[in-house]
Amino acid sequence: MLERILEPEVMDTEAEAMDYDAMDFQAVNLAFAQRACQLGPSKATVLDAGTGTARIPILLAQLRPAWQITAIDFARSMLAIAKENVIAAGCETQICLEFVDAKQLPYANGSFDGVIANSLCHHLPRPLDFLREVKRVLKPHGFLLIRDLIRPESPEKLADFVTAIGSDYNDQQRKLFADSLHASLTIAEIQDYLQHLGWVGDDGPNLELHLYQSSDRHWTLEKKFQSSTIVQR
């Protein structure tokens, strides 16, 4: 198995943020947003951790007009572009952008109906710290969607994935992708974190939590909103 090599936790230069925002993640982001909508209710308070340039919250706001989304990131350069994107989409009333460390969330226990995170865990030296915070701020009946890259088994497989993204990406963008793959986790490592938290799925105490490989290079951790426990306001 390829050894995990960490990349910088925060992409906080203007050039990195612009390169990231320019990459074509539209199809992947839309699939993620649509899955979040399937897991969550029609009205919800949602935390998007590691929002980057807010492409996913904008899609969610368009798909779920009754969602209030708190979108956080620990890179001010990302948030600067995110603000421009949110304003351009006309989503200022639904999306609140905040400079927050996902490993130390400033929110009370059970603050959110849903927590989502796309491609955040591979940035974190200790993803367990983030997962612990997610468990704390998510309401017991809330929904969860976390998705990230799987670390390839070998340098050759990693190179194949980078080649497969095509020639539309520049050298810096391909390097960002390669570094992300190298810093990613395996499903077994995520399972160990969940067991450490007492928050395991399928055959453990939380049967609603499901961890699975969702593509040739992605893992997904999800939990559906438990509508039977909704309290009428």
TrEMBL record:
Domain of life: Bacteria
Protein name (database record): Slr1039 protein
A Pfam family matched in the record: Methyltransf_11
Residues in Methyltransferase type domain copies: 47-146
InterPro entries from the UniProt entry: Methyltransf_11, SAM-dependent_MTases_sf
GO terms assigned for molecular function: methyltransferase activity; S-adenosylmethionine-dependent methyltransferase activity
